[in-house]
Amino acid sequence: MDNNPLTSLSSSHSRNDSLSQSELLDGFLLVRPVWVDDETVKNCKGCEIGFTAIRRKHHCRQCGNIFCQECTSRKISLPQFGYITPERICNECFEIAYLVGYIISDEPSTQIHGARGLLDIVERGNEHELSNFITYGGLDALVYLCRASHTNDLHQLGTTALTNLSGYESFKPYIIMKGGIPYLYNLILFYYSKINSDASSSDPSYTAKFLDSASTIILNIGNILYSLSISGSLCQRMVIDVGSLEAIMKLASFQLGNLAEDETSDEDILLTYEEMHLRVELAKGLAAKTISCLATNPSHQLLIFENPRIGLDKLMDLLHSSTYEVRKYAAKSIAYLSLRNDKYKSALIKDGRVKVLTSVIELVDENLAKANQVTISHACCAMANLATNAESQQLLISQPSLLSNLCQVVSYFISDKEIQRHVARLLANFALYEENKTRMLFYPMTNEKEATDEEAEKVAEQEAEQEQDNNDQQLEEFFGSIVPTLIAIGDSPVADVEIQRHIVRALDNLSTEVPSMSHSKLLPCLPLINRILDTIKDEDIRKRATHVLNKLSPPLPSIPISSPFILNNDQQHYFQQDYDDISHFYGQPQNTSDLSLNEKNNLTKTKVEVENNTATTKITNVDDSNVITSYLVPVDNLILLDDKETKTSAYISTSNNNFGNIEELNNNFNNISLEHNYKETLSTLDKPPKLPPIRQNSGALPTLLNQFSFDN
Questions:
Q1: Domain assignments of the chain as residue spans, ordered by start
Q2: What are phi and psi of 499, to 5 degrees?
């Protein structure tokens, strides 16, 4: 009896000569090589000895090259090329040829022997051997194992060999060219369905041995897919239909299943089971990485959007996976998808998906937040991208406590540059929309069409007072402290020029077209704005920062120190609450006969010089004539009165007025419009004018002192 396995394989095929090749080979058939022309070859391809009349030429049926008798002494059947009877083959092709023949045998044990042999060739890593391996059917045989075999041992050997082969950059494309990817997807769906159909089944297929093979197969496929996805040109050809997308999503959510009950008491098996779980976790992470690579390709993005049940819904579910790598790369994929045009941005978070996305930043405690730091960063990036679209930003900001959660994220990750940048950009994009400003600054809205300006102002004041008394704390908890958060981001150690740009943009948007009462909530930002103006050289940032500064602290009118003061009717009424004449407030009679300061400035030019305690005023008329007047300037006129000083309080208390406090008086003085009589000199007055108190930091003092050029 002949125990040679090759003879056994040949006789087995001889018995099936009556079968069609498609039935025998299950579709596995390679193209026969083109034979080298005899006349062009003088020496053997193997031993390089010259041919003679006795040393004849022979063609290898696998590679088509010409060899001598010694180099082509062996014969085997080559069903992969359609040769059922044994044919001549060279020594170099023999190993691959018989292993491929074993793979397509109908005996499982023979197939396993062939699969192990092919794996050995791949693991040796000889590139010349690997080139022959791919050229002469080795790769086709591995794909055949994934396609036609139903044995998990063969699947494990085949996918392991493909994993090793995918590690060679030059050989990666052949896996796709040979059609291997669809069969890998089929294996994912097969094992996903088999394990998840009944994880508690007592079927022998759920023994530790089976689960060990299944976990290895899943990890191998994860490695192959990720290795191909990071090659740009190959990535475009990986997903060809909805089934491909579904397979990758299921791989990212794969669950191993439970051991059979009779094996749960074995400690060695339990240790092995933990290793199996680790493999599955790694496979899920690789699948999530693959999805993030696919999400950068426009055609794959379109496939995901057009199949929301399989694509978008499954992707959102991955945000709450038990595997950290899956959560991280799922969020990254969503960030890539959020870069699509406006047509698709709102589709990304419709149908309840917005709630899943925003739930990523609902942090229970800081430790949990730290465990999801990169996931939170990608989620914030996605939301910042989505907030550029009117419909999608409305879906986002309508989520309860979103703004409050964003503020909390900033406090947890004050040193994370990416998170700070994404949150600042998101808040700046939110602030572009009028309806969002009411949430971000929590001020009440009024209907301008139904109320006059005066009525709207009264309503706004009343509602603001009521909210301040009753709901400020609730609003802050619900909407968050946006202004302090922006300040914290701007003051953080990682705040670079880009972050400062988003901060200034957010403040600029928040201070535009809002009720004047809301400006008071932005005043704490002034030191930050001033610091940005002092340190940032970028012209666009400086322009926006100056715009914000002008809106929050408008310039006061110029106040010449020697001027008598003239008030308009409304201002007179304000200060005449309990007395008819306000002249005693200024220490001189009121003059209403002269032109205003702005009108006089068109006719005259005034220059004031101070030396010692004497001020000299030089007035140039339109006819170029000069009038010089000298007078003493009291020191009181140059003193800034502090609200808490006894002198200021005494001054107010002796004025017999009804103002509630110095704060109220100072606030109203900031809005006084002044006029000046240039014809009357101080020589006709009993004493120089006494200025009203000036509020500290109001901006009036620098304007006032600019009228003088004194040293002391």
A1: 476-552
A2: -65, -45
